[in-house]
Amino acid sequence: MSQSYQPSILDSMTGPVSALEPLTGLVRHRLTAGAWVDHLPGWMHGSDSVFETLLGIDWRAERRKMYDGVVDVPRLLRWFGGTETLPHPALIAAKAALNSHYAEELGEQFVTAGMCLYRDGRDSVAWHGDTHGRSAKHDTMVAIVSFGSPRNLLLRPRAGGHETLRFPLGHGDLIVMGGSCQRTWEHAVPKTAKPVGPRVSVQFRPAGVA
């Protein structure tokens, strides 16, 4: 890693116990084609302990076929299925809070938790939508909680004709992509030449959405 993570001042003030802000503070951004994004900076306080725990889980390096070769995935990955226990109680509480808040609108529960570790600014994820499941044809939600060093999440419509949106995601921030967002918009976390420390992205999804 190019730079170590420095615990946040806010976390040192609030103490080691993780706490969630009310989800009534979410701000919804209406996009095109029935897509939307909810954003709540600083949703989880006291998240330094969560981040330290996540850095120590059994991360997996993967390789994927691209064109005529096989390349390293530029981030580390870990997937928690619906029957696996999440590695920190605050993540269990976060999933429960999201399920309660979005129960009527989503019509089902967030079940799985995919996790990505961006070790430094060289790690990234290219433009994509989470369309390897039911979200290829149906509206759904993907809720992301960010831990560690801030990174930009970019969004752009697949059809073009709209400026790229930029959401800076910092320690304990929440963003939820909903409606048709996964199939009508794309998102990415680009590389950066700035000296940044590690970041973990925790993505809660309903069953069958990947």
Walk me through the structure.
- The structure is a single chain.
- This protein is α+β, with helices and mostly antiparallel strands and about 210 residues long.
- Helix content is about 15%, strand content about 35%.
- The chain has four helices and 15 strands.
- The strands form four sheets. Strands 2-3-13-10-15-8-7 form a seven-stranded antiparallel β-sheet. The protein has a four-stranded antiparallel β-sheet with strand order 9-14-11-12.
- Strand 5 and strand 6 form a beta hairpin.
- The longest helix has 18 residues.
- It is globular.
Question: What topology emerges from the helices and strands here?
Answer:
Blueprint: H1 9-14, E1 19-20, E2 27-30, E3 35-40, E4 44-45, H2 48-55, E5 63-66, E6 69-72, E7 76-80, H3 89-106, E8 110-118, E9 125-128, E10 142-148, E11 151-157, E12 165-169, E13 174-179, H4 181-184, E14 185-189, E15 199-206
Antiparallel strand pairs: 1-4, 2-3, 3-13, 5-6, 7-8, 8-15, 9-14, 10-13, 10-15, 11-12, 11-14
